[in-house]
Amino acid sequence: MSTGWTILDSPGDTAGFHARSPEPVRSVTFHTVDRPTLALGSAQTPSAVDERVAAAFGIDVVPRRSGGGAVLMVPGEYLWMDVVVPAGDPLWLDDVGAAMHFVGRWWSAALASLGVASRVHTDPMLRTEWSNQVCFDGVGAGEVMQGSGKLVGISQRRTRQSARFQTMCHLRWRPELVAALVAAPRPSASALAPAVRCVPASAERIRAALVDHRP
């Protein structure tokens, strides 16, 4: 087990969490929300969301600086882990796609310790009709799969100083709500339902396993 990681917590203020630039040092940050929040990918605009649905369900909509589609965070129903690797670190790779593989292997090892079998996606990106709108509907480099469903989503933002990997698993998946939040034309809940596999463990146990298995 490495002792070279700083372990941090980031409760609430999701907009501020995504907006800030982390220090270029090895760190792990576990982010929690105190209200339902939809984090948009860096290429998305607020027009990608049905604002009436978001308002009706009291869902905050915030931008994030990593790529991919929107990610819904509901208190107690997910675990989010940010990983920062500074340039020049042994874990740093110039290949943007391959750089994500170690994060997937990290998650896969942690999940295995909880009795959850998985595999890390190392093939080319798999896009779907809705993957630009809904992050978990596609499959990218390093993401952790169980069968055809995604256990862990991973996105990345890179600067000259560091790479920031944003990762999340679901404890509960709400395809009907995610579908409703997409601006028309929207996917059906049944189209999104198979995209996700929920992790059958508490957030506390998953967090502990991730800390124990950090590279």
Record keyword descriptors for this entry.
single chain; 215 residues; alpha+beta; seven-stranded mixed sheet; 10 strands
Could you describe the 3D structure shown?
This protein has 215 residues and is α+β, with helices and mostly antiparallel strands. The protein has helices spanning 14-19, 51-56, 101-113, 175-181, 189-192, 203-212, and strands spanning 6-11, 27-32, 37-40, 60-63, 71-73, 78-86, 119-120, 144-146, 149-158, 162-170. The strands form 2 sheets. Strands 1-2-6-10-9-8-7 form a 7-stranded mixed beta sheet, covered by helices on one side. The mean pLDDT is 96.
How are the strands of the biggest sheet laid out side by side? 1-2-6-10-9-8-7
Query: Strand pairing plus helix content: what structural class?
Result: alpha+beta
Q: Helix and strand string, N-terminal first?
A: EHEEHEEEHEEEEHHH
Share in helix: 10-25%
Number of strands: 10
The N- to C-terminal Cα distance equals 6 Å
- The shape, in one word, is globular
- Total helices: the number is 6
Mean pLDDT: 96
Main beta sheet strand tally, sense and closure: 7 strands, mixed
What is Rg? 16 Å
Topology, pairings included?
Blueprint: E1 6-11, H1 14-19, E2 27-32, E3 37-40, H2 51-56, E4 60-63, E5 71-73, E6 78-86, H3 101-113, E7 119-120, E8 144-146, E9 149-158, E10 162-170, H4 175-181, H5 189-192, H6 203-212
Helix pairs in contact: 3-6
